[in-house]
Amino acid sequence: MLRIIALPVAALALAGCTVPTFGAAPGATTSSQSVYHLWQGFSIGAAIVGTLVVVLILWTITFHRRESDDIPKQTQYHIPIELTYIIVPILVVIGLFSWTMVVENREVANPKTSVTIDVNAFQWGWKFTYPGENVVVIGQTTQNPEMVMPVNENVHINLTSSDVVHSFYVHAFNFSRLALPGVLNQFTFRAVDTGTYQSQCSEICGLYHSLMWFRVKVVSQSDYTTWLARNANAFTAQAAKNATNQQTSSITPTKITKSKGDN
Amino acid sequence: MTDVLDPPIVFKPHEPKPDEHHGPTGILKWITTTDHKVIGLSYTITAVIMMVIGGAFAEIIRAQLTTPNNTLVSLAQYNELFTMHGSVMIYLFAGPFAFGALANIIVPIQIGAPDMAFPRLNALSYWLYLTGSITMLSGFFVAGGAANFGWVAYAPLSNSINTPGSGADLWIGGLLLTGFSAIFTGVNLCATVFYLRAPGMTMFRMPIFTWNLLVTAILILLAFPVLTAGLIMLYCDRHFGTHIFSVAGGGVPVLWQHIFWFWGHPEVYILALPFFGMITEIFAVFSKKPVFGYKGMIFATITIGALSLGVWAHHMFTTGVVLLPFFSIMSFLIAVPTGIKFFNWIGTMWRGKIWLSTAMLMAIGFLFTFLVGGLTGVYLASPPLDFFTHDTYFIVAHFHSIVMALVLGAMGGLYYWGPKITGYLLNETIGKVQFWFLFIGIQLFTLPMYLLGLRGMPRRIPVYPLDPSWQFLNQLATVGAVLIGISTIVFVINVAYSWKRYPAGDNPWDGHTLEWFTTSPPPHHNFYRLPRIRSERPTWDYNHPGDAALEHGHHHEQLDEVPSE
Predict the structure, then answer these.
(1) Which CATH architecture fits B2-553?
(2) Which of B73, B303, B382 to mutate to test binding with chain A, by most A CBs within 10 Å of its CB?
(3) Are A35 and B384 in contact (CB < 8 Å)?
(4) Model pLDDT, residue A68
(5) Over the stretch A145-160, which tens digit does the pLDDT of each residue have?
(6) Beta strands per DSSP E along A71-206
(7) Min CA distance, B445 vs chain A (Å)?
(8) Which residues of B touch A101 (CB under 8 A)?
């Protein structure tokens, strides 16, 4: 069954270069690329259905205009046609749902990972902690803190919030997830392209929501190791300083300690 | 066919003048009335004023976004503006216009009733709505300004620590008042439809508009009390030290999202179904045909209503704490009855004699605009695609396609039923000018926002220095918003120009349903006489004996359960 569903996915993946983008981009992770193909599939479906409906509407309002006061035939029911447009949409919906499930199950799976990053959102900035590596990156509003992660490696993210609801939205990964206070959200990225991807909070979180920026920087495995080693101590000092700033600027400092415990 | 040739049921031997009711006049009439038509007109006027206020907020928002680092409004003011724009449009315009204004006026007349079932409760509904609206908007005049946490008021941003100030309390208070107004209207509509139908008006002879309002009213009764309860919880959290939505006190912030969207998703259909009903009537009348698939249409409406109660968590896919497949398939399934409606609308027009009046143009504009909103809605039922687009401008574009389609429907409703309420037609030429401004404006406004969302622009940001390339698309959207604003001005000009200029007569459109059988405006208790009701088109049957609807395309053998006389 799964193979039957996966078939069009694979076919579309093979034809990927010839199918229009419909405004989206493949993105820089394995999941983002499945999402992109799903996007293309949905867009093809929408284009077909949309064109059919638009042509029917334009046809009838063009060719069935009133030219005299004659009464047209008062047809009210046509069971075969009505059944057709009940049954066909149900089949289409089942198809779309099945494909969705294939992509979704892959995206929300939590495979074994060697890299873990704790992401903590607060008003109004981000803190990226690398457990066991003694590295903390922290930055507020326009400071644009960088979450560095290795390419071709499963990276496990633990997402928390210290105060209100935020959203960890990485456009280049075609992905967003809310950072909820009191909830630990976990997901995995496997980046396939190196690069620096500008991102920002996407859930309204108060005054400086529009300036709550961060970057995701995907580097090679060796660069990642070097980066960890070189920055461990430096960032500890920086982090301690920033953490103090954050404690004083944050409205509810007690909760920050709590979410550290979650991590 | 002989039955419809019979003389109509006449309640009085001779017709008195329409002003035979001896009630107060002038301002006293408007304040003390329990007449559903006067209350409905009060609703209409108030709701249109709210639309203008909410529209003004939208124009400021769009002006702010014309450049990446605009300083027209401050960050704080921007948060207030988009919060109040959404709140005014959803809570104070779209809903009350749908189930307060037109439903109030039209539903009793369509089923041959003299008034709503509970006229005083109906008056109370209106006054609660008006006071609630004033309460919510008065937030702008208190220290700290109006509510600024978005129209969804997610906890814990909406608690007293993160949002101190009475603007938020006034928002909650206003919403409680309008919520009760909606609940009472729901009770009233249900009772009216179940108990006050004229002799012969069986459930399956009710016009589609009335059917849709019945399902809407049931949804109101199921959804609004939940929101009201949630608002009381939120208020207790803010002022009485409860911790229902705060982690620190052992509460659950995401519970607010469940409560809010348990109301919020049925609310989408509470808003949409009345407008579906409106355009259904318009398509049938201006194509001179019965509603195609009448019974299928009703079952589609009921199915939408039922499904809409089980899809709320598709607004919460990105929270990571909801069961994705269940809410996904439920949301996908709503596309099926909505699709049925689309094809039934096309079937109604098919081989009809289409008269492209302003009302009909608005309804066709609704189809195109809702098609875009509906198809993009299917994407959002898919959790991976929702992760991708959630809280970006793609969502903003999606629901603005939907609600702007509803605005087209509302305008269609005003052009279609306005003459029945006022007795005078609106100017058709100015109406068509208005339509083109509105329709082109809507597309120019929404389509660039889809692309902005796909390029990563989040919603609710007043500045976007990170990616100045978003500027051009934002400017296009702003031009669209300006065109929409102009269309509203054209509408006001039309009302002023057409004021008492074109007498409508009782039945200007060759209508199908009972409201076109009585005078324009209808007398105090709506009818002096009623036709025999043997189908969902009693007025048509009376005016066109011999042209009854053809079941399955051919004449029916036995003609209903007509008593032999």
Answers:
(1) Up-down Bundle (1.20)
(2) B382
(3) yes
(4) 86
(5) 999 999 999 999 999 9
(6) 115-122, 125-130, 135-140, 146-150, 154-161, 166-170, 175-179, 185-190, 195-200
(7) 17
(8) 325, 328
Angle CA A200–A206–A207, to nearest 5? 90
List Cα–Cα distances, B255 to A214, B194, B240, B322, in angstroms: 28, 35, 18, 11
| Residue B58 vs residues A172, B53, B314, B339: alpha-carbon distances, Å | 30, 9, 26, 31
- Residue B380 to residue B375: CA distance in whole angstroms: 9
Q: How far apart are CA B375 and CA B335, in angstroms?
A: 8
Is A60 in Cβ contact with B346 (below 8 Å)?
yes
Cβ separation A107–B353 shorter than 8 A:
no
Q: Please name the amino acid found at residue B167.
A: G
Write the residue in B75, B381, B384 that is nearest to A210 by C-beta. B75
Domains of chain A: 2-108 (no CATH), 115-262 (2.60.40.420)
Among residues A109, A138, A106, A111, the alpha carbon closest in space to that of A125 is found at: A138
CA torsion angle B12 B14 B17 B21 (round to 10): -30
Tell me the nearest-neighbour CA distance from B507 into chain A, angstroms: 16
Strands A125-130 and A175-179: unpaired
* DSSP run (H or E) holding A218: strand A213-219
The single residue listed with the structure tokens 């976004």 is B65
What are the Cα distances from residue B163, in Å, to A206, A255, B18, B156, B229? 8, 17, 54, 9, 20
A119: helix, coil or strand?
Answer: strand
Interface confidence, given as ipTM, is: 0.91
DSSP letter, residue B241: -
**Residue A184: closest CA among A206, A165, A158:** A158
A:64-103 residues touching chain B, CB 8 A cutoff: 64-79, 81-82, 85-86, 89-90, 93, 96-97, 100-101, 103
Three-state DSSP state, A232: helix
The answer to whether the beta carbons of residues B436 and B362 sit under 8 Å apart is no
CB contact under 8 A, B354 and A104: no
Q: Quick check: B261 and B272 in contact, CB under 8 A? A: no
Q: Inter-chain contact B458–A108, Cβ cutoff 8 Å?
A: no
Taking CA–CA distances from A39, the nearest residue in chain B reads B385
Mean predicted lDDT score pLDDT of chain B: 92
- Number of residues that this document lists for chain A: 263
Let me know: does A30 contact A192? Beta carbons within 8 Å.
yes
Please give, rounded to a whole number of angstroms, the shortest distance from the CA of A81 to a CA of chain B: 9
Compare all CA atoms of chain A with the CA of B541 and give the residue at the minimum distance.
Answer: A74
Q: Which of A37, A76, A157, A198 to mutate to test the interface with B (most CBs of B within 10 A)?
A: A76
Report the run of H or E that residue A25 belongs to, with start and end: none
Percent of chain B with pLDDT over 90: 87
The token pair at B79 is 């948060």
| Residues B362-399: tens digit of each pLDDT | 999 999 999 999 999 999 999 999 999 999 999 999 99
> Domain extents for chain B?
2-553
Number of CB pairs, chain A paired with chain B, less than 8 A apart:
279
**Tokens for A209?**
């929501």
At position B219, the amino acid (one-letter code) is L
Nearest-CA distance B320 → chain A (Å): 6
> Per residue in B294-315, is it b (16+ CB within 10 Å) or e — as a string?
bebbbebbbbbbebbebbbbbb
**What single-letter DSSP state applies at residue A18?**
T
DSSP B287-318: HTSPPTTHHHHHHHHHHHHHHHTT-GGGG-GG
Q: Which two tokens stand for residue A75?
A: 């047809």
Residue A67 corresponds to which tokens in the numbers above?
């030219």
Count of Cβ atoms closer than 10 Å to residue B27 Cβ: 8
Average pLDDT of A206-227? 95
pTM score, whole prediction: 0.90
